[in-house]
Structures are given as structure tokens and as C-alpha cells.
Amino acid sequence: MTLQACNLAAVRGNQPLFSKIDLEIAAGEALWLSGSNGCGKTTLLRLLCGLSLPAEGDIHWNGRSIFSQREDYCRNLIYCGHASGVKDDLNAWENLQVSTRLAGKSCSQKEALEALAQMGLASFAYLPARVLSQGQRKRIALARLCLQPTVRLLILDEPFSALDQQAIAAVSQRLNQHLTQGGMVVYTTHQEVALQAKRLHRLALNRATPC
Fold first, then answer.
1. Residue 211: its pLDDT value, please?
2. CA separation (Å) from 12 to 3, 18, 199, 204?
């Protein structure tokens, strides 16, 4: 199981964001993507998810372009963007159920409640999202990582933002479990959170070279 990017380039308007990006991640490995604001971190994540097309290059999942196997590829990944995407009028478990179903996966009320409990939100599961803090709303979105069956690839844009130290530890533990089970993680963060991967790759986009 591998995720590869070959000679990736992206532009915003007429301005190049990055070019000549090559990367390869295997089972049990993680990629920590860093860089200054506006350097293209979110753009690169969206490319890796297949949500945008690169200006140059290609992305391969197990040796085949992701654009030739979209449905199969999407079944193997979860993408959590920087914004939580939580709806104010739904309670916590309803938000988790809706976001999961929109991604084409099933999620019962029982499964949603169990996932929220793993994120420390058991006592908030029936509250409308409008009364929850930013950190609690973030944990609703991240509760998708606790649903079964697990997918192979997690692509996460600032998963630790708005979280306190206890929540960061809980999310890190879940991600480390995923890696131990042979999963893969691609994530951005401005915080010093290094996952316990078989191999932790680092890519600083403002230099466009791995480090």
C-alpha cells in the first residue's frame, strides 16, 4: 500500500504555489506537511485527496493514478479540512452521522455515540452544535477517525488547532493507533506534534524540499 506524488505543481491564479513535489508514503508511515501561511499546504492536501487537479504531475495509489480509480480511492481515505464543517442546528451525533454519510459511508446512532465518546464528547453528544466550543466542534469532525471499519489513509488539515492539551493527546493516540495498524497519515500542523510512525516524513513547502 503506497501513496505517491510525482512532479506535482500547483498554481493560484497566475502565481505558482509549488512545483517538483515528489513524495512516497507506505503503510505505517506519516507525512508532516509544514510551511508558512499561503504556501499551498491546503492545496497540496486537496490534490492528494483528488479534489483538485495538479498543474503538473500525477498522484498514484498502489501504483495507479487516483484519477483513474476515484471511487476505490475515496473509499480508502478520510479527509478532514481546516474548517470543522459542523452544522449549528444539528446535535453532535447527528453532525457526525451526516458528515459520514455524505462521504458515502454508513453510520448508525450507536456508532456515532461510541466514536464521540472516544473523543471525550459523550456528555455533549445530544447538545446542539451551536452551544459547543470551537475545540468541541473540532472533535466532532475528528470523531470520524474513530468509526469502524477504519480506512487506510487519513489526510488532515490542522487537526490539532483549537484543541487543548488533553484533546491533542487523545487525537494523537488515535492517529498512532491507526499507524500501528498499518494505516497512513498526511497532516499539517503548526504545533510540534510528531506522530509515532514507522517512518515520519517531513515536507516544508516554503522550501519545496523534504527535510
1. 35
2. 24, 10, 31, 18
